[in-house]
Amino acid sequence: MFRRSPVFAVAGLACAALTLSACGSDSLTTNTATSAAGSASGSASAPAAVDAALVAKLPEKIKTAGVIKIGTDATYQPNEYLDTDGKTVIGMDVELFDAVMAKFGVKTEWIPTGFDSIILGVSSGKYDVGVSSFSVNADRMKEVTMVSYFKAGTQWVTQKGNPKAVDPDNACGMKVAVQKGTVQADNDLPVRSKACTDAGKDEITALVDPDQAKVTAMVQSGKADAMLVDLPPAIAAVDLTGGSLELLGEQYDSAPYGYVLPKADTDFGQAIVDALKQLEADGTYKNILTKWKTEGGAINDFAVNPTVG
Prior knowledge:
With 309 residues, the chain is α/β, with parallel strands linked by helices. Helix content is 36%, strand content 23%. The chain is built from 12 helices and 12 strands. The chain has helices at residues 10-19, 33-36, 52-55, 60-65, 92-104, 118-124, 138-143, 183-198, 212-221, 231-240, 266-281, 284-291, and strands spanning 29-31, 67-72, 75-76, 80-82, 89-90, 107-112, 129-130, 145-159, 175-179, 205-209, 226-230, 245-261. A 5-stranded mixed sheet has the order 10-9-11-8-12, with helices on both faces. The two termini are 17 Å apart. Mean pLDDT is 87; it is low at 5-30 and 32-46.
């Protein structure tokens, strides 16, 4: 995600990447934020104390409901994905945002949906926030407010041994899989393909799917020669396929991930920044990232609508 630029789901991989069948769920997951941040099942930190100053900055809709509705694409392990029960959303993003919301004393309701529908859902009020490994960029910040909390870049992935001899700098004529609505699908791959055709070479064929697990399955089965994905899901894909896939080259174009809020919610965004700073100061932020093996993406300059290149 790293994305979305999208990470990749363990449960999703087990179902979709290995069996090539759908594994989605429309069920909702509601977590009590104070317990989700410190559950007995290996959580990285103790329950967060509610901060009255932060509670005062909650949008009235969320404060009244006592719950925040979160749109997420639960196919992106290890960041957000479905647990083995097929309905509970878990992952690095989930545990971290649960810890953030514990500071506000509200429950979190995780609603699985398509990645490319989340920003519209936030803007229309269907979701209070989008948490789904969104790369912060200028185009997105024209539509919504974004709060940075992590950083990741894009990674190429191929079958082990790179049997198709994929060269990221010259993938003309090859089939490359990407998740719909991601930075890789909308920006990276089109630019690379245009460079091929401008040079009189064959275009890159983009194989696009809304489910990252199915994108991974295309590479594993050989339907695609390679895929582009954020580094965390790329690493997860290699692990979850027993090493039948491998990373090709190094990640590039690292950018912050951002929580997606309605355009007008800048004050709430700043309150989330303040909560993140508290979690960084008490060690919770680092502990959660370390638990999910994503500590390499840690940042300390949390910000509302950060400046990006």
